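User: For my dataset I need records formatted as: sequence, then C-alpha cells, nothing else. Please produce one.
Assistant:
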Amino acid sequence: MTDVKENIINATVDLMCKVGIKSITVDDIAQQFGISKKTFYQHFANKEELVELVLTILEQKQSERINKYLSNSNFIDVVMDAFHFYNNVAPTLHKTPSFVYDLHKYYPQLEKVHFQNTRQNQINFLREMLQRGKKEGFLWEDLEVEITANLLNMLYENVLHKMILEEEKDQVAVFIRNILKIFAKGLLSPFGVEQIQKQLNKKDI
C-alpha cells in the first residue's frame, strides 16, 4: 500500500465517523489531499472500496481496544466503563451524523460483513471477561458463559439499532437503564453487587 493511499484511508476513518459516509464525496477527498480524481481512482476502484478499507481499519482498532482491555483491565473496570458508556455516551449518539446509519442504508453488504467480524470480536471479549468475573466471584458460579456472552452481545446490537436506525430514539435511555438492571440483578453475585455499589457510591443499582 502506498503512503498516499494509507494517508487517505486513515484520514477518511476520522472524517466518516464524524460526519457520516454519504456526505463525503470523491471530490471532497481529492480536494482535501490536493490530488485529482484521476489520482484517487488510481488508488481506489470507487468510493465503496474506500469504505470497505475504512471498515477494516475500524475492525483493527476494535481488536486493539479489546486486546488492551484484556491485558490491562480487571472485571470491575470493564463493568464501570460499560455503565459510563450506557449512562452518558450511548443516549447522545443518535444526535450526531451517523456513520452506522449511512452504512446500513447505502452499503448493506459491507455492513453485513463488518458486523459479522465485529460481532465475533465482541463475543470473544465478553466470553473472556465473563470467565474472569466468574472466577473472581463477581458473577454467579453457575453462570453459563457462552450463552451469556451471546445474549449480552445481542442486547448491545439491539441498543445500537435503536440508537441509530429506529424512529423512537427518545426511548433509548429507558431501554439502556433496563439493560443495566438486568445485568446487575441477573448476573452479578451478591459480592459483585457489593463491589459495583462501592464504585457507583449509590444505595441501589
